[in-house]
Amino acid sequence: MKRVIVLTLMIACQSVLAAEDVWQPRENSPLWQNECGSCHMAFPPALLSSGDWQLLMRNLDKHFGVDASLDAKSRDQIAAFLDRNAGSRWGGHSADSQRITETSYFMKKHKGSIRLLIKGRVKSLADCLACHKQDGTETPE
């Protein structure tokens, strides 16, 4: 009986965690928002695993062809924020690539966006706000 109760609680907790909104980190970080959002949308931490974010933060001097280096204190604070809010905590998907838009999870979830890109109606798959409103809800295609 004890085993059934524990198993039921584990399943319930997993369901709650999986339902967490990837667009809304559990905590706010103005530093992350300002630094990452100064060049592109500050991608929700839940879109990559902790390990993927750590690798990305270690290589900011080669951030997709751009030197996005930060002072050590800012880098460490943002890396800690990303680690605490990473996707692995919610059953997130580790990247097959360092680019969120190239992960198998992204490709599976965004088939319509890929078609829009091919048709020229979306300029980049990294432009989440072209299809998603600021609150994470989708706009019609």
Structural class comes to: mainly alpha
Question: Over the alpha carbons, how many angstroms does the gyration radius reach?
Answer: 17 Å
Count of helical regions: 6
Low-confidence stretches: 12-19
Number of strands: 0
Amino- and carboxy-terminal Cα gap: 50 Å
What is the domain tally?
Answer: 1
Give the proportion of residues in helices: 40-55%
Shape: globular
- Profile the largest sheet: none
Short description:
By secondary structure, the chain is an all-alpha fold. It has 6 helices and no strands. Helix 3 packs antiparallel against helix 4 (72-85).
Write up this protein:
The protein starts with a helix and ends in a 23-residue tail after the last helix. It has helices at 2-18, 30-37, 50-58, 72-85, 104-109, 111-118. Helix content is 44%, strand content 0%. It has one domain. The protein is globular and about 45 Å long. The chain has 6 helices and no strands. It has 141 residues and is mostly helical.
